[in-house]
Design brief:
415 residues; eleven-stranded parallel β-sheet; ten-stranded parallel β-sheet; 2 helices
Length: 415
């Protein structure tokens, strides 16, 4: 494939005029915007105006030294170029090696389908800062190794308002394999499968998860939802997250624990988070487990359905332990991604910090995973207190999913 320097005029881009005049080369032109215009995955050539595939846009962004934008309209992007088995951007996964934002039109509208050929996104440590926004990554499959859906090899990756679903790996990390530093905001990981550990995700770096749902993932080993195994202190921080319906030891061979989370060589801290209704088919620790070198630290206001295998250290304030949260099913409860609504009798309603929910830096969380406002008065006592988990009770409109578009500003609500 030619370099961008040789076919610059066919790209849609924004440049800094000074860079154009002084340097005269693509590597110095500044940030570019690539508009993807086709949903198939041809043998990559060039990202031409009006004729640009997602793979061609990724390759073009990799060749630019600045932080580019790739725009994905609504539709299903089917990856079909076979992998060579190595680091080959022209086939298999979408290999990101430079700073870029991949911007979809919404997780329900913009779908990147791996086609069962390889993982969907492979983010390299050279990338610097990568943002995946408002899209679904599905049907990524590894023939060997780990990380079926998305792999962060060691950069700073932010995933916002996304769904990662239906991905699988024959070793670990069916959905996400995360080295480096990762931020997961307002997103859902569901229906991912690992033969080994970490059905939803495996963490070997650091991850911060806020206002998100980890559900219905499966691991043959430990950590049906999350498996964290690193030696760098705090591996996982959870704020207002719901972890439910995940399965560990899915092959029922007695190896693997922690249907929701397994902490191994790591420290997991959590606040305003629900871990409940997960399974360990071996019968040891359905919701969470820690090894002798792993531990859970409470920052207060958490609900754990079954604490067998995971004694909590830290701040016990507001914790609800060994109690049923009375969750609904994973469904479209409004917003861009599927979530668990709280039953009207759920103990998680208005059970948060009276001072408000915050992230780990003390920044107030003023909306839930769906983008609906929090806190609200969910129990009718006239006091607006945030709920535990990813969804704020009393903020849903047409909870059966009938609505479309952004309804976060609507004034009507139902219980």
């Amino acid at each position: 494939m030619q370099s961008k320097q040789n076919h610059g005029p066919v790209y849609r881009y924004r440049v800094f005029l000074l860079g154009l005049l002084v340097f005269g080369s693509w590597g110095s032109l500044g940030a570019a915007t690539f508009d993807v215009t086709r949903f198939d995955d041809p043998v990559p050539d060039e990202c031409a105006l009006g004729d640009c595939s997602l793979r061609e846009a990724v390759i073009a962004a990799n060749e630019n030294s600045e932080a580019d934008m790739i725009m994905l309209p609504a539709g299903i992007y089917n990856l079909s170029q076979p992998t060579s088995g190595g680091d080959d951007p022209e086939g298999g996964s979408l290999d990101i090696t430079a700073d870029v934002t991949v911007q979809g039109a919404g997780a329900r509208e913009t779908i990147v389908d791996g086609g069962g050929l390889d993982r969907v996104f492979d983010v390299y440590a050279t990338a610097g800062f990568v943002y995946l926004n408002d899209l679904t990554a599905r049907n990524g499959v590894r023939a060997t190794g780990s990380g079926g859906g998305i792999l962060n090899r060691g950069t700073i990756l932010t995933i916002s308002r996304c769904t990662v679903t239906g991905n699988s790996a024959p070793v670990d990390a069916g959905g996400l394999l995360l080295a480096g530093t990762t931020y997961l905001f307002d997103s859902t990981l569901s229906g991912n499968i690992a033969v080994g550990d970490g059905g939803g995700l495996r963490v070997v770096g650091k991850v911060t998860i806020v206002n998100s749902t980890i559900s219905s993932n499966s691991a043959g080993g430990g950590g049906g939802g999350i498996h964290s195994d690193n030696t760098f202190g705090i591996g996982v921080h959870l704020s207002n997250t719901t972890i439910s319906g995940n399965i560990a030891d899915a092959d029922d061979n007695g190896v693997g624990e922690g249907g929701g989370i397994w902490a191994d060589h790591t420290y997991i801290e959590l606040s305003h988070t629900i871990i409940a209704d997960n399974q360990d088919l071996g019968g040891e620790s359905p919701d969470c487990t820690e090894t002798s070198s792993g531990s859970f630290g409470s920052l207060g206001f958490n609900l754990v359905g079954d604490t067998t295998g995971c004694p909590f250290s830290g701040d016990p304030t507001g914790n609800l332990l060994d109690i049923d949260p009375l969750l609904g099913s994973l469904a479209n409860n409004g917003g861009p991604t599927d979530t668990y609504a709280l039953d009207k009798l759920s103990p998680a309603i208005d059970a948060g910090d009276p001072g408000g929910c915050t992230d780990r830096n003390g920044v107030p969380l003023t909306s839930d995973q769906r983008g609906y406002p929090r806190p609200l008065d969910g129990d009718g006592d006239t006091l607006a207190v945030c709920d535990l988990g990813a969804v704020e009770s009393g903020a849903s409109v047409f909870a059966d999913g009938f609505e479309s578009g952004d309804t976060s500003a609507w004034s009507s609500s139902v219980q």
